[in-house]
Amino acid sequence: MLETTIAGSLPKPSWLAEPEKLWAPWRYDGEDLWRAQCDAALVVLKEQENAGIDIVSDGEMFRQHFVHGVLRRIDGIDFERMTTMGIRADRYKAEVPTVTTALRRPTSIHGREVAFTRSQTTRKLKFTMPGPMTIVDTIADAHYGDRPALAMAFAEILNAEALELEALGVDVIQFDEPAFNVYMQEVATWGIEALERAARGLKCKTAVHICYGYGIQANLDWKDTLGDEWAQYRETFPVLADSAIDQVSLECANSKVPLELLGLLAGKDVLVGAIDVATDQVETPEQVAATIRAAMEYVPAERLYPCTNCGMVPLSRELSLAKLQALGAGAAIVRAEVGG
Ligand code: ZN
After folding, report:
1. What is the model's pLDDT at position 232?
2. What is the rounded average pLDDT of the residues 31-45?
3. How far is the CA of 170 from the centre of ligand 1 (A)?
4. CA of 173 to the centre of ligand 1 (A)
5. What pLDDT shows up at residue 317?
6. Which of 75-84, 208-217, 252-261 has the lowest mean pLDDT?
7. Residues of the chain with pLDDT > 70: what percent?
8. Which of 37, 92, 255, 319 lies in the 20 to 30 Å Cα band around 115?
9. How would you class 150 by CB atoms within 10 Å of its CB: exposed for 0-12, middle for 13-18, buried for 19 or more?
10. CA 179 to chain centre
11. How far is CA 102 from the centre of its chain?
12. E strands present in 45-187
């Protein structure tokens, strides 16, 4: 009960990529890079285990960008043809590659990484991939000419990949959909359908991570415009509750999401963000416990998984590790109280 997990990414060691930087360039290439990534994955698996994290991840040591890292091995995308465009409804500008022909997955995207990671831990393993709507929002399209059609094409590729990773022993496949609280209308009309297509036929746990983004300035500025109550989820949660996805990961620590909205997710597992990734302040275990207890007013303990608000890749390693330890210790406090 109250098994802990993380949203996904962790800081990369300074010998692998430039620290405290989003999308930092690698320090190696080719087979040297692969070896260094494996070593980094081993370190973060061990750190998670030591911190008491029950469902661990590779910390996204094998990818530079949470969307483009997945796209590099898909045919039909031209990384030479980069476009600068406003993403997440123009919240910030990003350099994105362009879809130029029909999409195809010629070979496994993450199989080698997952086989390695799976062989190195006996804990439950989570693997994260961007969801179809978020991919569509982070790429330029010169071929499909229609966002839902492009999303479905990506969903089919994600699904083939997810089925392969499940067969390799992944316990939870999570799709990251930060776009889900930007395009609420589209979530209902095609976003959820594309997400379900990506998860079709999976027998392992499926999760969707929706959030208000990393703790970078553009996101902090955007959050300031959202008012005293972040009610985006009021529209999204009922759609997710009706969906085939098992788990919903969202931010609760220091967020202005009204906790009673969690009641709209009845029947789903809820990954409650109890670690704020947008502050240098390390939570105390007692603060983490308080967030978990508050969520338990709306979600039964059996369905509640203490988690981080979002990925921790932009943080320093020391800070991230301290936050992991607080998460593990805070969950242990509540577990002892409820006899789990
Ligand atoms: Zn996030």
Report:
1. 78
2. 98
3. 20
4. 15
5. 96
6. 208-217
7. 99
8. 319
9. buried
10. 12
11. 26
12. 55-56, 75-87, 92-104, 124-130, 140-141, 172-176
Query: 């098994």: which residue's tokens?
Result: 3
Q: Could you list which residues have their CB under 5 Å from ion ligand 1?
A: 211, 310
If one counts every other C-beta atom within 10 angstroms of the C-beta of residue 244, the result is 12
Joined together, the tokens standing for residue 145 give 């000419």
Amino acid at residue number 194: A
Q: Which residues does 236 contact at the CB level (< 8 Å), separation at least 6?
A: 180, 181, 184, 187, 210
Sign of CA dihedral 76, 79, 82, 84: positive
* CA 311 to ligand 1 centroid distance, Å: 6
Kind plus residue range of the DSSP H or E element containing 307: strand 304-308
Scored b (16 or more CB within 10 A) or e, 321-338 reads bbbbbbbbbbbbbbbeee
Cβ-proximal residues to 25 (8 Å cutoff; 6+ apart), any chain: 17, 18, 64
What backbone torsions phi and psi does residue 252 show, to the nearest 5 degrees?
-125, -25
For 63-109, the pLDDT digits (tens) are 998 888 889 899 999 999 998 988 887 887 888 999 999 999 999 99
Tell how far the Cα of 214 is from the centroid of ligand 1, in angstroms.
6
